[in-house]
Design goal:
The protein has 2 helices and 18 strands. By secondary structure, the protein is of the alpha/beta class.
Amino acid sequence: MTPYPRRELVLRWVWASVQATLFRWSPRPCHWWRASLLRLFGADIPAPGRVVVFPSARIYFPWKLTLAPRAMVGRHVNLYNLARITLGFGANVSQNCHLCAGTHDFTRWDMPLVTRPIIIGDNAWLGADVFVGPGVTIGELCVVGARSVVVKDLPPRMVCAGHPCRPIKERPPLA
């Protein structure tokens, strides 16, 4: 049994086929092509020629994705967007990151799906292998250190790291 309507299941199957072929096999510099495919499937990408999406990235529900100009989705990134995932202007999600916008209510026997959106603020940078859980907002200009596990909101303009991730120090002003 699935919580999704039949139409969405069919759309997911079609997207999975497109992602496994046209998206994945496209040459690495063709970011505009992959962004255009995502838009074709409902992603909110106002400027497809101004985002970077690597061919090895995996997006589960394009219609629940927002990419502002200059946003980047790096190599082997998993965007498990059971709820909307938004990357603000210039947000950078480095290689092997996993953004997971859903979980299950383990306090109930039927363990229903619980989804909550993820927002990555303008010019925030997630280092390699970062995990971001459901309902998290990462503030603008925030830097998240490699291999951090983010399960709570992070403030803007901070350098954060750890497991669980926490603010370490203020980010120095940009030169």
